[in-house]
Specification:
CATH class: Mainly Alpha
Helix content: 40-55%
Number of helices: 3
Low-confidence stretches: none
Order of helices and strands: EEHHH
Mean pLDDT: 85
CATH architecture: Orthogonal Bundle
Distance between the termini: 33 Å
Largest sheet: 2 strands, antiparallel
Strand content: 5-15%
CATH superfamily: Winged helix-like DNA-binding domain superfamily/Winged helix DNA-binding domain
Shape: globular
Number of domains: 1
Length: 75
């Protein structure tokens, strides 16, 4: 299995915001879309430089991070 970098962070790109690799699209934008009640297809339509697989895997990673944090708080 080949691991590919999904997100990147650099002071030179959007002041250090976490962005999808190969784009200038902040990961926070995806979260903001969901907070606004928008869908993944809407996000991908508005940000065509982000691949669907990138967005889905990032969401899965965020879900795992939240589950670990929830578990750590409960312990």
């Amino acid at each position: 299995m080949i691991k590919r970098k999904l997100m990147d962070q650099s002071r030179d790109v959007l002041g250090g915001a976490l962005v999808f690799v190969g784009t200038r699209v902040p990961v926070q934008s995806l979260i903001d879309y969901f907070e606004e009640g928008k869908t993944l297809p809407e996000f991908l339509n508005d940000f065509p430089t982000v691949r669907k697989t990138q967005a889905v895997i990032v969401l899965e990673k965020l879900k795992l991070m939240l589950a670990r944090e929830k578990h750590a708080i409960a312990a």
